[in-house]
Design a protein that fits this description.
With about 210 residues, the chain is an alpha/beta fold. It has helices at about 20-25, 65-70, 80-95, 110-120, 140-155, 170-175, 190-195, 195-205; strands at about 10, 50, 130, 160-165, 175-180, 185-190. It folds into 2 domains: about 1-50 and about 125-214, 3-Layer(aba) Sandwich (Rossmann fold); about 60-125, no CATH class. The chain contains 8 helices and 6 strands. α3 crosses α4 (about 110-120). It is globular.
C-alpha cells in the first residue's frame, strides 16, 4: 500500500488484525519484522508526524488549562516564545477552541477534549496526522463534528490523515482510501473498491454491507 500526500486513509478490520501495530511502526515505536516501511523525507524524522490517541492519560486531579494542555505538544521541540504563541493560537483556532484557552481542560465535553488532543498535535505543525480510534466513546453528533474538523484540516491545510476505527460508516463518509486488515493481510485502495461485500465478508466472517455518501 502507498499513502500519498493529502489523502484520508481509514484503517478498519477486526480486533487484533494489526491496525494499531502498523501505526506504531510508522511512529517508530516498533521495528518491522519483515517487509519494508518507507517514509517520505518530509516526515522521516517523525517530528512532523502528529498522533492523536483514543484518550488522554493525563491525571485528572492535576489542574490543567486548555492552553497548558495544548502546549504539551511542543515537548522536545525548540521553539521561540513568539513562535510558541503563534502556534498555540493557530492550533486552537483550527479546532474551534480559541475562546477556551484559559478554561479547565477537565471541564470540557468529550468532543471538546478530543479537539484539544488534536490541537496538542497540531501545535507541532505536522504534515501527517495519525488518529487511533479517536472517536471511541463519543456520541453520533459529537463524532460527526469531530470528523468535520479533521476533514477541514485535510482540505484547508493539506494534512494527510490516517484514521483507525471500527466504525465502517465513518470510513464511507470521510475516506478517500481504505486499508482493510484481516488474517495477516491488508486490502488497500480507494474506499469503494475495498469496502465491498466480498472483502468485508472475508474479513469479518459474516455478511456486511455499507453505503457510500461520496
Amino acid at each position: 500500500m502507498e499513502v500519498r500526500r493529502g489523502e484520508i486513509w481509514f484503517f478498519v478490520g477486526p480486533n487484533g488484525s494489526g491496525k494499531t501495530t502498523l501505526l506504531r511502526a510508522i511512529l517508530g515505536l516498533l521495528e518491522p519484522r519483515a517487509g519494508e516501511l518507507s517514509l517520505d523525507p518530509i516526515v522521516a524524522p517523525r517530528e512532523l508526524i502528529g498522533f492523536v490517541p483514543q484518550r488522554c492519560d493525563l491525571n485528572p486531579t492535576l489542574p490543567t488549562t486548555v492552553r497548558e494542555f495544548v502546549l504539551l505538544g511542543l515537548v522536545g521541540l525548540r521553539v521561540h516564545r513568539r513562535d510558541e504563541r503563534e502556534r498555540l493560537a493557530w492550533a486552537l483556532a483550527k479546532v474551534g477552541l480559541a475562546a477556551m484557552a484559559r478554561r479547565n481542560y477537565w471541564a470540557l465535553s468529550g468532543g471538546q477534549r478530543q479537539r484539544a488532543l488534536v490541537a496538542r498535535t497540531l501545535i507541532r505543525r505536522p504534515s501527517l496526522l495519525i488518529l487511533d480510534e479517536a472517536t471511541t466513546g463519543l456520541d453520533v453528533p459529537t463524532t460527526e463534528e469531530f470528523l468535520h474538523t479533521i476533514a477541514e484540516l485535510n482540505r484547508a491545510d493539506g494534512l494527510t490523515i490516517l484514521f483507525v476505527t471500527h466504525d465502517l460508516t465513518l470510513a464511507t463518509r470521510h475516506a478517500t482510501h481504505v486499508a482493510l486488515f484481516a488474517g495477516g493481510r491488508v486490502t488497500a485502495g480507494p474506499g469503494r473498491d475495498v469496502l465491498n461485500p466480498e472483502n468485508l465478508q472475508r474479513a469479518y466472517g459474516v455478511p456486511v454491507e455499507v453505503g457510500w455518501d461520496r
